[in-house]
Design brief:
Layout (H helix, E strand, L loop, with lengths): L1 H16 L1 H30 L10 E8 L11 H8 L5 E15 L6 E8 L3 H4 L4 E4 L14 E4 L1 H7 L10 E4 L2 E9 L11 E4 L19 E6 L5 H19 L10 E7 H5 L1 H35 L1 H9 L4 H37 L14 H28 L2 H6 L9 H35 L10 E7 L8 H16 L4 E7 L9 E7 L12 E7 L3 H5 L3 E4 L13 E5 H7 L9 E4 L6 E7 L15 E5 L7 E8 L8 H11 L6 E5 H7 L2 H35 L1 H9 L4 H29 L2 H4 L10 H27 L3 H7 L1
Parallel strand pairs: 3-8, 5-7, 14-19, 16-18
Antiparallel strand pairs: 1-9, 1-10, 2-3, 2-6, 2-9, 4-7, 5-8, 6-7, 11-20, 11-21, 12-20, 13-14, 13-17, 15-18, 16-19, 17-18
Helix pairs in contact: 1-10, 2-8, 2-10, 2-11, 8-11, 8-13, 8-19, 10-11, 13-19, 13-21, 13-23, 14-17, 19-23, 20-24, 21-23
Length: 811
């Protein structure tokens, strides 16, 4: 042990003798380790250990699927849930939920909207979530007309109720009804989607097992696996239950006889599906930077070992064993790694909030990043790996050095030796890795440009939007709801500067809205064919004019399309091409699957994007009059000629209050903001990957600069002779730069090959961009070569200024 401490002290003294090298190594390691730990911490919180869920790997989402059509991953019906929860040997607990909005109002309270969920009573048991105050729901409270209890989230309790310790037992007015607060959840739990409160869903228990029921509301279902039960075993059980049901009753919940089934998947995988690949790419990019940093340090260590070759050879000649010297080199790498890791943890602590701030808020719901056991294990593994990578190359060189030759030649044996070739190989590897990141960033930038060129199908300029939810206890009937919407439309049109106003149950780029199968009159379906399917929207008459969605043929809705009149609908061109390729859709009749009434198609409009610029191309839309089929929750959109539509916020809020003073309006945003926010996830990846690519390029250039500078120093006498024999400064410049370009070209070609080999990783993120995109390849190559030229020029210019007399006299 004493020998180990002595060796460590000696390693520290050696590092202190080379402050330039030590500071450079520690700073670059701090950068690489800090970035890696920050990205892994976010990845751990998102994918591996979501906050507020003990043992998250045991929590699964229960999903239904239908093999034919686009129904491969859909919510459960209550009857599906009844099929699943009887498996007590598979699940310890199971629950369902549906998202819900609550209007919070009362005396001396400005009406506001609270987002939350209606859940079955075992919801909190599935997540092993315990209340901070009070209790959670009881089975008898999860019943129709008895579900007037509410559990608050910790954040809601803190922000809206000033952390009142006596909140349990108080009554709140939600959706014009009285709810009693029975509990407050702990600070880590807010599932789903940062819920502000929860109420019982109140579905009759018998409905879960009534196969004849037509209750078709689809619910999000979760369950906790019993200890020792795997996801594969749960899936086998669910599929067995589906098969038993079809065999006994001849059909499933959807009336299909085959191709239907149930399955489970880890909840974290379901919730964060859009984040998995971007985070993996970012972690790979940071890992690449860390490899470049370690290669740089290894190259610097080799240079130091070469400079100390005579000293090390004397030590060997005096009896020092190679094993001792190898251990000393490894200890130096370990010391650098420990210090770099310590500083890297502080840097990661500062970088995590920045990452969360840059990331799209919609993708970071329920994310609470903390340094836990998994992160600490990752840090230890990272520090060990860095220590090995930083020390293994000089260690290998020491083990193969010819110490007696170094003594005979005075230490000048490295000019064209193995050490130089190893350093050149490290630089080539650095350039190749930098090229991979540059090309990946270039492809993603090009893809983002392509996406931004996509037309939305409507004109977002001059549009201001908001959302509202009518409480069903106040607006119980369709007549009351349509009367509210009609009065609101008149109030909105009376706002100065408003040219059009409309409402829809789901505005574009709000991540809302649904889809459904429908039937076409006169068209028969093949056995088990799920039938036509499309996105459904319920809109007011002026919607198309407000959004400026062109009408192709037919008419749009009018004030005459109201309750108790002939049901009509408008379809878009995508739906028309898909299901009426050789006939005129106008006058045709469609209806919801299982619905009693037919709707007449009266018009065809252009296709408009719903939530994503790069998708929504295959699924069409059918629109129905909001007055004929009213919805409680709608989006408001108004068009103005003003260049600042956000200035209408107060006027829109006033228009709603003029109809109902207790009705809150929320989520005010211009339509241009909504479209722009749909690209935040892509911009987040592009920005971070571009930053990482720039850092990798700078580090590779630093490594190239180091080897060229070292080569110039070793060849100082040779360059002096060349100049003495008549070589011009331009000749010397070309000689030195040529060496750098040779390394760069090899690294560039290897990088392109590696980028193409790894291309599948990002191919799914590209939109109308090939991996062989010439613009991205040219720009990445040009940036790399210009950086290489700059890194080579400085030592080359110094070489060109060598005084031959001074160089020869020095030698």
């Amino acid at each position: 042990m004493n020998n180990l401490f002595r060796d460590i002290r000696y390693a520290i003294r050696q590092l202190r003798k080379a402050p330039g090298f030590t500071i450079t190594a520690v700073l670059t390691l701090t950068l690489g380790i800090g970035a890696a730990v920050a990205v892994f911490s976010v990845m751990n919180a998102v994918l591996l250990n979501p906050s507020g869920i003990p043992h998250p790997a045991s929590v699964v989402a229960l999903r239904a699927k239908y093999a034919m059509g686009d129904l491969g991953n859909i919510n459960f019906s209550p009857r599906d849930f009844g099929d699943a929860v009887v498996g007590k040997d598979v699940f310890t607990s199971a629950a369902v939920m549906t998202a819900a909005d609550f209007n919070y109002s009362g005396s001396n309270i400005t009406p506001e909207r609270l987002s939350g969920a209606q859940v079955s009573w075992q919801w909190f048991d599935v997540f092993w979530a315990r209340p901070y105050l009070g209790r959670v729901f009881r089975p008898e409270e999860d019943q129709p007309n008895a579900n007037h209890e509410v559990v608050l989230s910790y954040r809601t309790w803190q922000q809206r109720f000033a952390a009142n310790p006596n909140i349990v037992g108080q009554t709140l007015e939600l959706n014009d009804e009285q709810y009693q607060v029975v509990g407050v959840m702990g600070p880590d739990f807010a599932w789903p989607n940062q819920a502000e409160l929860w109420t019982p869903i109140g579905i009759p228990p018998g409905l879960y097992f009534d196969r004849r029921s037509r209750y078709n509301e689809f619910l999000f279902a979760v369950a906790r696996l019993r200890p020792g039960v795997t996801v594969s075993q749960a899936n086998a059980y669910l599929q067995m239950r589906a098969g038993q049901h079809i065999a006994s009753e001849g059909a499933n919940s959807y009336g299909k006889t085959s191709g239907w089934g149930m399955f489970s998947m880890p909840l974290a995988e379901f919730v964060t599906g859009n984040l998995r690949l971007p985070l993996f790419i970012l972690l790979s990019a940071v890992g690449t930077i860390l490899l470049i940093i370690c290669a740089n340090i290894a190259g610097l260590q080799l240079a130091r070992a070469s400079a100390r070759q005579r000293e090390l050879s004397i030590q060997i000649a005096l009896g020092a064993g190679r094993r001792r010297l190898v251990k000393q080199a490894l200890l130096e790498g370990l010391c650098l790694s420990i210090v770099g890791t310590a500083f890297g943890l502080f840097l990661a602590w500062a970088l995590v909030p920045l990452l969360l701030m840059l990331a799209p808020a919609s993708l970071m719901l329920n994310i609470s990043v903390h340094i836990g056991r998994e992160v600490l294990l990752f840090v230890v593994a990272l520090a060990t790996l860095c220590a090995l990578l930083c020390g293994i190359t000089p260690t290998w060189r020491l083990a193969r050095s010819r110490w007696f030759q170094a003594l005979q030649e005075g230490g000048r044996t490295e000019t064209a030796g193995r050490g130089q070739r190893v350093r050149s190989g490290l630089v080539v590897a650095e350039i190749a890795m930098a090229m991979v990141l540059l090309l990946a960033a270039g492809l993603l930038v090009r893809s983002l440009q392509k996406v931004q060129e996509v037309q939305t199908g409507f004109d977002p300029r001059g549009l201001m939007s908001a959302e509202l939810s009518l409480p069903k206890t106040t607006y119980k009937t369709p007549e009351q709801q349509t009367a509210f919407f009609s009065a609101l439309e008149q109030q909105l049109m009376s706002i100065p500067g408003v040219t059009h106003a409309a409402m829809s149950n789901a505005l574009p780029f709000t991540n809302s809205g649904g889809s459904a199968s429908f039937q076409i009159e006169g068209q028969s379906l093949a056995p088990n064919d799920p039938g036509p399917h499309g996105n459904d929207r319920h809109i007011s008459p002026d919607y198309f004019a407000t959004m400026r969605i062109p009408v192709i043929r037919g008419r749009v809705f009018t004030s005459g399309d109201r309750l108790n009149t002939e049901l009509v609908c408008v379809i878009d061109e995508t739906l028309a091409r898909r299901y009426w390729p050789s006939e005129d859709p106008l006058g045709q009749h469609i209806k919801f699957s299982g619905g009693p009434n037919w709707m007449t198609i009266v018009g065809i409009v252009r296709h408009a994007k719903a939530s994503s610029l790069q998708s929504d191309t295959t699924e069409g839309f059918y629109y129905m009059p909001l007055a004929q089929m009213p919805k409680a929750s709608v989006g408001i959109v108004v068009r103005t000629n003003s260049e600042a539509p956000e200035s209408l916020t107060s006027a829109i809020r006033g228009a709603v209050r003029a109809v109902n003073a207790n009705e809150p309006v929320y989520d005010f945003r211009t339509m241009e903001q909504r479209v722009d926010e749909s690209l935040i996830g892509q911009r987040f990846l592009v920005v971070l990957l571009s930053i990482f690519a720039a850092v990798a390029l700078a580090l590779a250039a630093l490594g190239l600069y180091g080897i060229i500078s070292y080569t110039v120093r070793l060849r100082n006498r040779e360059l002096g002779v060349r100049i003495a024999l008549g070589a011009t400064r331009q000749d010397v410049l070309a000689l030195v730069i040529r060496k750098g370009l040779q390394l760069a070209i090899v690294g560039l070609l290897l990088g392109m090959i590696a980028a193409i080999a790894c291309g599948r990783l990002i191919s799914s993120l590209l939109y109308q961009v090939s991996l062989f995109n010439p613009i991205a390849i040219f720009v990445a190559s040009a940036v790399l070569m210009l950086t290489v030229l700059f890194a080579c020029y400085i030592p080359a210019r110094r070489a060109a200024k060598v005084d031959p007399m001074v160089a020869l006299r020095y030698e």
